[in-house]
Amino acid sequence: METYQWAKVPVVVALTKYDMLLGRVDRTLNESALVGLSDDDVKKLVKEKADAELQKTCIKPLERSAGSTIPWATVTSMYPSLLQPFDHAS
Q1: pTM above 0.70, yes or no
Q2: pLDDT one-digit tens code per residue, 4-32
Q3: Cα 14 to Cα 89: distance, rounded to the nearest angstrom
Q4: Which sign, positive or negative, has the C-alpha torsion 90, 85, 76, 29?
Q5: Is residue 8 classed as helix, strand or coil in its secondary structure?
Q6: Distance, CA of 22 to CA of 17 (rounded, Å)
Q7: How buried is residue 52: exposed, middle or buried, by Cβ count under 10 Å (0-12/13-18/19+)?
C-alpha cells in the first residue's frame, strides 16, 4: 500500500459579515451596562464582545483543525478606528 505525505498548503479563509456581527452585538447590549459610558467606550465594548464571539465561533474551531498559528485580521467599515494592524498571529 502506498503512503502519501501531505504537503503544507496555505489556505485562506475569508470570514465575511463582521459588520453584521458588530451590529448584532451593538443591538443586543444591555442598556444598563452602558450607563455613563462615552460613545468611544461603547464602541470599544462592542468591539471586545464581537471579538470574543469571533474567537469562540470562528477562530478557535479553525485553530483546532489547522493549528494555533493562524494569522487573522478583521475588516469593517462600521468601526474602522477600532481595528488593529494584522497582529493576531500566535
Answers
A1: no
A2: 666 677 777 777 788 888 889 999 998 88
A3: 16
A4: positive
A5: coil
A6: 9
A7: exposed
